[in-house]
Amino acid sequence: MEKETRNVVIKKPVGLVLITVYTVFSGILMLLWSLQWFGAGGGEHAISSLILAAFVGLGILYLVASYGLWSFQKWGHTLAIVLYIISIPLGIPAAFLLSVHTLRLISEDMPVPTGAIFLFLAGGAIALLILWYLFKAKTRTSGRE
Description:
Layout: E1 2-5, E2 8-11, H1 14-39, H2 46-70, H3 74-106, H4 114-135
Antiparallel strand pairs: 1-2
Helix pairs in contact: 1-2, 2-3, 3-4
């Protein structure tokens, strides 16, 4: 967890490491979910295809941002902030729409799972915590003190 620059060792803050791991995990989940949704016929309609493309793009951007955070790149820090700001307002409608769409693929009679909606809302709360951490004075310079 250290980066060596001109014989100077820079320790990565634990918070930054946790955010990077969470960002990688989020990106991979978005890509896997997109593949699953595409395999279930989710890209048949224009709006479904647009949502699917957005999730693939966001998944890739999350992975790119995690690389930037891990390697102390200023652009990675900025990209992570932008992605987490975007993720907060998108979480609530996504929770409802994606839950309903997934259930319709399984059965018309199934109720909307409150657990899935809770997870999306918890993701919004985690995004707020991540933004708070990224805006702190020490981390504004992407890990350099």
